[in-house]
Amino acid sequence: MSTEATVIDLVRQFAKAGTHDIDSTTRLKELNFDSLDFLELQMGIDEAFGVEIEVEDFLKCATVGDVTALVRSRRGD
Question: What parts of the chain have a pLDDT lower than 50?
Fold first, then answer.
């Protein structure tokens, strides 16, 4: 599974709304994440990809594509 597909699957797990049409341009705010959801997503991504992303860096992500790019940069992809 690609990095983007894995990120999308993780976003679906933690999103509260609109999970059927998630792609790289989907804005995280559209999915009604609260602080806890966002933190759980960040920890899930850390675990799934074997990376450690600082919360401050993760909070700068506006879209699913931003999250994917951050993961790729941490993995050296």
Answer: none
Please provide residue 74's backbone torsions phi and psi, each rounded to the nearest 5 degrees: -70, -30
Q: CA 20, CA 36: separation in Å to the nearest integer? A: 21
Domain count across the chain: 1
* Exposed e or buried b per residue across 66-76, where buried means at least 16 C-beta atoms within 10 angstroms of its C-beta: bbbbbbeebee
Phi-psi category of 32—alpha, beta or left, where left has phi over 0 and alpha has psi -120 to 50? Answer: left
pTM above 0.85, yes or no: yes
Q: Is the dihedral of CA 37, 39, 43, 49 positive or negative?
A: positive
Domain range for 41: 3-75
| CATH code of the domain in which 59 resides | 1.10.1200.10
